[in-house]
Amino acid sequence: xxxxxxxxxxxxxxxxxxxxxxxxxxxxxxxxxxxxxxxxxxxxxxxxxxxxxxxxxxxxxxxxxxxxxxxxxxxxxxxxxxxxxxxxxxxxxxxxxxxxxxxxxxxxxxxxxxxxxxxxxxxxxxxxxxxxxxxxxxxxxxxxxxxxxxxxxxxxxxxxxxxxxxxxxxxxxxxxxxxxxxxxxxxxxxxxxx
Length: 194
Prior knowledge:
Elements: H1 25-41, E1 47-50, H2 53-62, E2 70-72, H3 77-87, E3 92-97, H4 98-105, H5 120-129, H6 134-142, H7 146-152, H8 156-174, E4 180-185, E5 191-193
Parallel strand pairs: 1-2, 1-3, 3-4
Antiparallel strand pairs: 4-5
Helix pairs in contact: 1-3, 4-8, 5-6, 7-8
């Protein structure tokens, strides 16, 4: 974290690990604001917003951006995108796994389990609208988790494409009209689509 904050050399005042774990909503949003400020101050022309550490690591392997460009937004999707717009970030990339992306595609600005419900029935509706077999929609509706849908259905790539397209619309709105690139991360921690 020291390098991300522009601290190179000297003694760390952040503790031995350098890992900050924000707990409160205010701590998270303050951390997001500072991280975006550091990214811009370091000359980054884009910010990569990650929903979690797995997504961040996968994006780092895929993209050749400076360390400071990566911002852990956690569940605070709407806030992070608005902050990017407010602070003048020219380009935004969102790295997320399927379940979080599905919540975004359903219009949830906050993806924490206590703030948003995962709506597999909506995904089933979208699968029908896309002309997929009725049996696919039934399997989606009977699934326990979005991860189950993503990892077991042969049509997962097509479904993921629909989710990415719908999520892009919301993300762009929350970012004040800026285009937002999405990187979809699979459950093995690899980039599976952009």
